[in-house]
Specification:
Elements: E1 7-10, E2 14-15, E3 19-28, H1 41-51, E4 55-56, E5 61-66, E6 69-74, E7 80-86, E8 93-100, E9 107-113, E10 119-123, H2 137-146, H3 158-168, E11 172-181, H4 185-194, E12 201-205, H5 211-215, H6 223-235, E13 240-246, H7 251-261, E14 266-272, H8 279-291, E15 296-299
Parallel strand pairs: 10-11, 10-13, 11-12, 13-14, 14-15
Antiparallel strand pairs: 1-3, 2-3, 3-4, 3-7, 5-6, 5-8, 8-9
Helix pairs in contact: 6-7
């Protein structure tokens, strides 16, 4: 039986000396469980189906309390909310409570560390670290419906590459900015942990609801990725940025636009070659970027 009471889902959030951002959803859903590893493809398909049987609740009032302050926002049409405020000066951690106004028992406690990274790594997920076959609908759906986070495959060498990035500089901070929907948050978080990739904050695409949206997973506009990177640059204005993606969809175009707007902020761009038809275009992009002082590395598995 479906619960008639909304529930609050607060995602891993982040804070710098400049800004603090806390994000989440208010949803109604028949299931709230995390990804359950199983070798049964039918059970995996059922779990994935359940992830998309959510009802976002628009117009819900959400409170955030920290210290003596109380902030208030209203969820948008997709049930999403975001708190953004200047970080109090001189603090290293922030303790707060996020609660639903209509159901105060639905609340979450957060303790955020204020991060001061020297460099921020922004990584795509599908076909960058996770083998997804995003350019082939049939193969993409087969993997999405029959595999769990343990049986999905990371590209060879991904762990070593990300480990080398982590070891090369102190104070590195990872963000996974993807066109996968918020429905897949727990799945992707579990995948990254299972493959022993660097922990980070996930910033995903609008939540979706229904079986048709499941079949369209990862599609639509990818413009949200640029706006999220722009936000990160605002939150961490002293940090350099390394951008990692693939040629399957719009990562090269988005990263090129970011680099043209912020050439002094970009340390390096890495693009995985997964789409032969776009190869010459990406090579030309890399050449153009090099002339503006930004190094784009185009590589294959």
């Amino acid at each position: 039986m479906r619960s008639s009471v909304p529930f609050l889902k607060v995602y891993q959030s982040f804070a710098s000396d400049h800004l603090t951002i806390v994000v989440g959803h208010v949803l109604r859903s028949p299931s709230r469980q995390r990804d359950r590893p199983t070798k049964n493809p039918f059970k995996n398909a059922l779990e994935m189906y359940r992830r998309y049987q959510v009802k976002p609740l628009a117009g819900e009032k959400v409170f955030l309390k920290y210290g003596g302050e109380t902030l208030e926002v209203i969820t948008d049409r997709k049930g999403f909310f975001q708190f953004e405020w200047p970080t109090p000066s001189g603090v290293n951690t922030l303790e707060m409570t996020v609660a639903l106004a209509a159901f105060p028992t639905e609340s979450e406690y957060l303790k955020l560390e204020v991060k001061r990274p020297s460099e921020v790594v922004v990584s795509d997920i599908d076909d960058t670290i996770l083998v997804s076959h995003s350019t082939s609908l049939a193969r993409k759906l087969y993997l999405l419906l029959t595999k769990n986070h343990q049986s999905r495959r990371a590209f060879d060498g991904v762990k070593d590459f990300y480990d080398s990035l982590s070891e090369s500089k102190a104070g590195l901070l990872f963000f996974y900015v993807s066109s996968s929907e918020w429905n897949l948050y727990d799945f992707l978080e579990s995948f990254v942990a299972d493959k022993q990739l660097p922990g980070g904050v996930f910033l995903l695409q609008d939540i979706k609801s229904g079986i048709l949206d499941l079949f369209r997973s990862g599609g639509g506009s990818h413009s949200h990725k640029k706006s999220k990177i722009d936000t990160l640059m605002k939150v961490y204005p002293e940090a350099g940025f390394t951008l990692i993606g693939d040629s399957g969809q719009q990562d090269p175009d988005i990263y090129q636009a970011v680099a043209f707007s912020n050439p002094d902020r970009i340390c390096k761009i890495y693009i995985r070659d997964v789409r032969k038809s776009r190869r010459s275009k990406v090579i030309q992009m890399a050449s153009t970027l090099r002339k503006s002082g930004v190094d784009m590395v185009f590589f294959s598995e």
